[in-house]
């Protein structure tokens, strides 16, 4: 049973006018078996939360703590966090020229599993995972994310989720930019992951439509760099009807 | 990747072209066997402006004593391989080409004899090891590789050791022959090497050349390709890994003067600096298609991968076309940075930083290394590149 515990997290980024505080005290606990949705307007700091947990060097933690099963995540390097069982599906996956997807996936699996997967079973495993997500096998030979469409990049993120089998996955707007079919495929991928074991999911989204495919246990409303309200799935329905006005004081 | 492109007016600071203005075209490039026919470069000349002359150990200005010897050793001669040491007035010497800069001419003048390796039939691969004169010494060298008509051969030339070397390598491909050539510069850290390669491609002959530049303090190699008859096909691939303080320079000229020939140039450099010790690569790719060279097909490409700060990659592709009747011609150049976002992405999948760098560099060079068909050599070079990567400096 894994637990990700975020306590009073304050995060700043460096700007031309000095440090700017973006997260202003986030408290959140995600346990294995739970799916939490974080919903909030653009610019409220959702991606900042995701990046800060993953350890992106641009984001400075000024106070607070993040722990995975009691271990201090903030003391870990980015790759150590991943090997400890954290995964971030990025809102904007990065292109890595010169590195084939096949090579990348194998290197990542080798790192996370602590040993190189057996070639025979690995090839089969990748093939199946790709086919589950309607990814053309030819993508294996293409450079990581290079020239992928928005939707292809998102599927590729979920493919990694399936292969790397983290304990806690943070999915940052994995639904944005997807058409109806792609949204279904991606949601099924996430649901397969949820069903695969004792795992926790933190689903960051701007829209409610993905929640029709992936039912959250808890919905948090995020505004101004913190969680302003938490509730059950019914909170998402309210957001769908009334938007974020009640939480931000302005129509979004 | 940011696209960088620029045009280089070619070349020379030769006496013949005196005056302030550089000669405008590669087609007017001055050549001579006589070192005194070239002015001592001052550093502003188009063909010297990227090279740190102070580090040249006097190879360029007449102060190099040529007090040492570079040894040229040929792996046990298989059948179909003839190795000779000849005087430089041997009628074959010079068939590859004529020096086009002062260092090449100086090396030519200073070399009393030359090693000529002639390949006939389909011999086993030949390895030629050129060992520098040792730390503090300077040497000149002359090597000629010849393929007999319709021969098919593989030659590896490996440069090793210490000291300063100016040399000329002639590669004369007989009609209808095929040569696979790998040249590696795996010098010790102190070494300075200024090399000219004069490549003459016979009718219907094929050259598959791969250059691998790893070691040395300053290594500047200038291959020039000429075609003697139609149907010639030259592919020049290369990679360089410049680490802290290293200067690696590749200056290519492909001179299309006869019809129906093909050239393909693909060079990739990676740079990894440390603070206060810049890694510098220079790639100059000149392709000249003369009026007579109808139906030429040519493409040249340079890619640079900057792995750290304090690194500088210069890239100057230059395509001059004097005929309208070409089959195809193009060039491209791009310098990309392995940036923090890419590193973050790979690390966020559990991949440690050193493995991430290796992954990126291996992927980047794969296209070049895969052309080396000798598995042991390829594996050794792969390992050498990974060893360079491991030295991340301060
Ligand atoms: N690197 C950065 N430099 C400056 N401002 C940033 C940086 N990253 C994020 N921000 C700002 O922080 C706020 C939150 O951004 P983000 O976390 O991306 O929000 P969301 O994901 O909720 O849309 C925005 O106002 C954004 O402009
Ligand atoms: Mg965002």
Characterization of the model:
The complex is a heterodimer of chains A (252) and B (394). Chain A is α/β, with parallel strands linked by helices and 252 residues long. Chain A has one domain (3-247): P-loop containing nucleotide triphosphate hydrolases (Rossmann fold, 3-Layer(aba) Sandwich). Chain A contains eight helices and twelve strands. Chain A has helices at 46-54, 78-84, 101-113, 119-132, 150-164, 180-195, 233-242, 245-248; strands at 3-15, 18-31, 35-39, 59-68, 71-72, 86-89, 96-100, 143-144, 168-172, 200-205, 218-223, 226-231. A six-stranded mixed β-sheet of chain A has the order 6-9-10-3-11-12, sandwiched between helices. The longest helix of chain A has 16 residues, at 180-195. Chain A is globular and about 55 Å long. Chain A starts with a strand and ends with a helix. The model of chain A has no long low-confidence stretch (mean pLDDT 95). By secondary structure, chain B is mainly beta. In chain B, 13% of the residues lie in helices and 42% in strands. The model of chain B is unreliable at 1-23 (pLDDT under 50). Chain B has helices at residues 102-110, 340-347, 353-369, 375-390, and strands at residues 2-3, 71-74, 81-87, 113-119, 126-131, 138-147, 152-160, 164-173, 178-185, 192-201, 206-213, 218-227, 233-243, 247-256, 262-272, 279-289, 297-306, 311-321, 328-337. The two termini of chain B are 27 Å apart. Chain B has a domain at 66-338. A ten-stranded mixed β-sheet of chain B has the order 1-19-17-15-13-11-9-7-5-2, with helices on one face. The chains are: A alpha/beta (252), B mainly beta (394). The interface between A and B is medium-sized, with 32 and 22 residues. The complex binds adenosine-5'-diphosphate (ADP) and magnesium ion. Adenosine-5'-diphosphate binds next to strand 1 and helix 1 of chain A.
List the helices and strands and how they pair.
The complex is a heterodimer of chains A (252) and B (394).
Chain A: E1 3-15, E2 18-31, E3 35-39, H1 46-54, E4 59-68, E5 71-72, H2 78-84, E6 86-89, E7 96-100, H3 101-113, H4 119-132, E8 143-144, H5 150-164, E9 168-172, H6 180-195, E10 200-205, E11 218-223, E12 226-231, H7 233-242, H8 245-248
Parallel strand pairs in A: 3-10, 3-11, 6-9, 9-10
Antiparallel strand pairs in A: 1-2, 1-4, 4-5, 7-8, 11-12
Helix pairs in contact in A: 5-6
Chain B: E1 2-3, E2 71-74, E3 81-87, H1 102-110, E4 113-119, E5 126-131, E6 138-147, E7 152-160, E8 164-173, E9 178-185, E10 192-201, E11 206-213, E12 218-227, E13 233-243, E14 247-256, E15 262-272, E16 279-289, E17 297-306, E18 311-321, E19 328-337, H2 340-347, H3 353-369, H4 375-390
Parallel strand pairs in B: 4-6, 5-7, 6-8, 7-9, 8-10, 9-11, 10-12, 11-13, 12-14, 13-15, 14-16, 15-17, 16-18, 17-19
Antiparallel strand pairs in B: 1-19, 2-5, 3-4
Helix pairs in contact in B: 3-4
The complex binds adenosine-5'-diphosphate and magnesium ion.
